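Worked problem 6 (solution included).
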Amino acid sequence: MKRRAYIGLGANRGDLVATLDAAVQALKSIERSEFVAVSPYYRTAPIDAPGPDFINAVAGIDTELEPYGLLLHLLDIEMMLGRKRRGAQKNAPRKVDLDLLLVGDLIVRSTPLTLPHPRLHERAFVLRPLLDIAPDVVLPGLGPAARFVDAVADQRVEPFEAAAPQP
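Solution. The predicted structure is:
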């Protein structure tokens, strides 16, 4: 059974646009999955983290993979694009970050994976691009994503004009 999955993409170290473009291309090649959409790219301020601004986006795919299998693919893509998790400081600047945000209407609470992503409704850098590609999306257990936008209005999220992600 196919489910719609949403993946948060971010980077704030290295060639940000090239890295996110490569991540989008890699998402298109995930087995038993069909790429649906990617949001525009946004320049965003780091939250609870030092370092330069991030470039963020959200992609949607339809997948037959179970959430843990999809998560493994995302971790492989991060590693392929140069992310080193071992020994990395929490919230340190990173070359790439792929977060599994939602998989259909599943609610998962485990050590390696929490769905929906535990803070997605508190992060403008996730909500704005997510709503660009899924304006009516409902966060399982929380309700419509759009209802959380006002609560994060003070977080800086600006269109990143230099990037035009390829669908």
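Discussion: Helices lie at 16-27, 67-80, 124-133.
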